[in-house]
Amino acid sequence: MTFYKVGDEVKAGKFGPLEHDFGGIVEKVYENSIMIAIKQFDPSDKTSVNELNGRAVIRKDEAKMVKAVERTAEDKELAAKEEKEKGEKAAKPARKKRTTKKSEKKGDK
Predict the structure, then answer these.
(1) Degrees (nearest 5) of the Cα angle 75, 79, 84?
(2) How many CB atoms lie within 10 A of CB 56?
């Protein structure tokens, strides 16, 4: 997963009411998604962009980085930490659910 920061320029595929690909600037970064201020879009999508108030929240996996803002050493450390934590979560085995036996009553037979 790419590490996004406010100010990065990204492109994304069609989304919700938008019928064409669009691009914009990252305004907010969430755990698994980002909010984009839509700047580049197909003219036929103008009404849809207006309905969305010029913003869209998309999954990080669906966005492609076009131009990144300068990263500091702290940003690089944070990105490495996030990647490490994500790898550790994926490596953990899934918990097994406890099952309980149904009690059999003598009168049920």
Answers:
(1) 150
(2) 23
The answer to whether 54 touches 23, Cβ cutoff 8 Å, is: no
Question: Are 9 and 27 within 8 A, CB to CB?
Answer: no
Q: What is the pLDDT of residues 45-101, one digit of tens each?
A: 999 999 999 999 999 989 999 988 887 888 778 777 877 777 777 777 766 666 666
Is 21 in contact with 12 (CB distance < 8 Å)? Answer: yes
Answer yes or no: pTM beyond 0.90: no
Q: Alpha helix (H) ranges present in 1-109? A: 46-51, 73-91
Please give the distance of CA 66 from its chain centroid, rounded to a whole number. Answer: 16
- Per the CB < 8 A criterion, the answer to whether 1 and 86 are in contact is yes
Cβ atoms of 26 and 10 closer than 8 Å: yes
Q: Which amino acid is at 31?
A: E
Query: Under a CB-based contact definition with an 8 Å cutoff, are residues 20 and 39 in contact?
Result: no
